Amino acid sequence: MKLIDETIMSQYANSPIILRIINEMNEIIDPEASVDDFYSLIWNVHTANGFGLDVWGRIVGVDRNAKIIPPEVDVFGFKTNPLSFKPFDQAPFMGSDANFSSYQLKDTDYRNLIMIKAAANIVYATAPNINRFLKAVFEKRCYFLLAGGMQAAYYFEFKLNYFERYLVHTLQILPIPC
Description:
This protein is mainly alpha-helical. It is about 45% helix and about 10% strand.
């Protein structure tokens, strides 16, 4: 602690035993390190990990457990690489009826999800603001287009990866105007 003498009440300021106990405790316990750890591991969303990100997830309303197939799991079917498919009895079918337990997002993906959900919670949902939001989130060519007649749509000019599909289709996290 800093400035211990200023924190001791005047009636105990002349007690050698109490002063010795406080000084010894001060040498053992350094609250400054604990405060710094709390700030970097929990409070600062950019440096938080594990438990700190779980706290932020509860604050913004998203869960770390995703009901998607983990990207490293092989499933029956064909992928873009001709050597990456699995034949019958070698891998499970991919689909909504597949029995996959929830996949726990890694800290980097979960941090991105938290930041996107927080931004989606506070964005003023007009077409220009949504387009700025999309540019910041995906950093690729995508846009929100008003089609008229109370209709609008999101357009992505790239193939969404597993995490982006999870954001757009499963969580439906993108802002929708009134």
